[in-house]
């Protein structure tokens, strides 16, 4: 189920669900490393599988959005990766750029820096007109 939801997140245009599932898989990997490292101790704890189950449910279930909570409140504070959209963009423009893949975002940012945001919007409108014709 988690893998199917992860694939759906990858295929969706929004990055929010990607963030949720990537965070989930990273945290799940850390739990697995913890289990592999401390298996001799965990064998003696009969409640460990239940703790893990409840924690994983908290991470995954949309009601709780635990993975997103951990990302927003713990991870995001301590990392800065080159995918962020900085510069003189409006909030709407930043949202549009954030919905793109990293490669597409880099290309768009380069195009906007060279020709301006107006030229980019004209190119989008031209592409939309072309798509409607076909």
UniProtKB/TrEMBL annotation:
A GO CC term assigned to this protein in UniProt: membrane
Keyword Transmembrane helix carried by entry: yes
Positions of transmembrane segments: 21-41, 47-71
Assigned keywords, A-Z: Membrane, Transmembrane, Transmembrane helix
Main location: membrane
Pfam families: TB2_DP1_HVA22 (PF03134)
Coiled coil regions in record: none
Subcellular location(s) of the protein: Membrane
Family: Belongs to the DP1 family.
The protein's name in its UniProt record: HVA22-like protein
